[in-house]
Amino acid sequence: MDGTVTPDFDPLAARDGLPSACYTCGTCTAGCPVAAERPDFSPRRFVRLAALGLGSEAAGDASVWLCPGCDTCVERCPQGVDPVEVVTALRNLAARRGLAHQSYRLQLESILASGRIYPIDEFENDNRRDLGLPPLAEDPFGPEAAFWKGRLGWVLAPREDGDGPGAGL
Amino acid sequence: MARRYAFFTGCSVPARAPGYELSARAVAGALGLELVDPPGLACCGYPVRPLDREAALLLAARNLALSEREGLDRMVTLCSACTGVLTAAARRLEPGSAELERVNRELGPLGLSYRGTVRVSHLARVLLEDVGETELARRSAPGRVGGLPVAVHYGCHYYRPSELYRDRPSADDPERPTSLERLLRAVGADVVDYERPDLCCGGGALGVDEPLALALAGRKLEAVVAAGGGALVVACPFCAVMYGSSQRKIAKTLDRPLELPVVFFTQVLGLALGLDEDEVGLGANPVRVADLGARFKTEPPDVGAAPAGAAGGEGVA
Fold first, then answer.
1. Which residue from A53, A122, B114, B172 has the highest number of Cβ atoms inside 10 Å of its Cβ?
2. ipTM higher than 0.85?
């Protein structure tokens, strides 16, 4: 590595949380519940990387998957940066590079197969009936299933590097 | 009042929190709110956002379109994560907007078209705004739920990002929300304050770093117990998973006993409205505590014409 980097993230994209507006005050990290438990985790760091256009570096960092999306930082940023949206955009970038976290891949598999993260079948509907709840469709997508597989199946493509970073987190 | 709402349970409620759904339907029924189940509702898109935000928006839009198709312009949600993404989607897909046009183009092959007319609200906000505290108080008999001090966990997506909910009469201050407490106090619950009511349950990190998520949840449980809370009230099934289903694990990690019932706000409301434990599904909650329904009462269960000012009864266990 010779130290040069190729920016691959647009810091001016409001859609991606407007990282370019950050003036590194650290209010986000100060109130972050994850940072309180994991000193190496910092919303400010992800916003900084994004502001520098270093999407790949941020997206390749496994800790980008730790953010629970609580939005405490979003509420408090004095500049209107949305660190959660920055993190989400970075995760999307990671997913496009085949680095989606295994837990989300598993949830997607379930959604594509059954329309839900927790499938409903006869067993669940029997329990629902016993409780006095109306049945739920076992296959809510119906004929739409092929459409959603087409739209999102790419996430589940086998990775060249085996499970890759993030799977062991 | 006969208001009709598309009822969006999301995935987690049917699978992990049937008591929430049961009590929600029962409370709505008791208050004259009609909950309609549009066919075809599926994932709101929340777990897809980290993978592909645009596809997640399509999933959300699909549910809005299906509800609209049933002639419904109001959608009521139970899970706060669903609430967040569906509210954000409805906000983005304004009638006449380029976004709406683009999304409809993409959903076209599915035979779906969204006109942008659905307003999404968490059930708690529907109860506060469409029924109101006065009516709720009127329908609740005193003594049904005031006997057990409860702490309220708001859950992040219920009121943040605040700019999504700013136009609601029940909008919360993002640094110190109060709407759920008002709802509970209206029906006579004894709500106690505790440190860090805003603290995230950690659910969003459970699949990535379980010890981290449990550590966050543990902090809340400790704070509630320290404040004398006899139960934790939640408004989201995943918060219930973190505080209820995971409570034993957390107790082990913290090396202290924990037996804090986790109940849904609709279960407390249901009891206050005169429904019984089974009707609000208290037995379906993960942390089972004997006679929880009785503990909520401030008077003995067999009271007839109680003299004014009668005290005593169950008290706090």
1. B114
2. yes
